[in-house]
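Journal club prep, notes for RB
We'll compare a predicted complex against what the paper describes. Inputs for the zinc ion case:
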Amino acid sequence: MLDRNAPPYLSAALWRGLKGRCPSCGDGKLLHSYLSVTPHCPSCGEPYGHLRADDMPPWLTVFVVAHLVIPPMLYLEQLYQPNVWAQAIGWSVLSLALTLALLPRAKGAVLALMWSLKSEGTERG
Ligand SMILES: [Zn+2]
């Protein structure tokens, strides 16, 4: 029998966080602007204002963007040696776009992970 009040699995909570949705219900928005955490879920009322993701979302974003951009950049350089200015502009724009797209998703996933682990979200013990 499915318990409707049971917390979601970690994978479901992470997926909801990646989509910017409340890890608990999946309906309400987790971020009310680009990176600001909503104090409470507008749908289920779950509190999120106390969670502080700190530096984890930017570190995660840099890790992912670097692994997405650097291999094709090196591969393209090996094959065609394109113009340096074209590469500098192109790879910079791609890196910036990926960073801006992935940063709120990384923050949502980190907040969902903290929520799932019942992390207090503060540095106090
Ligand atoms: Zn909710």
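Talking point for the session: The CA atoms of residues 5 and 24 lie 10 Å apart.
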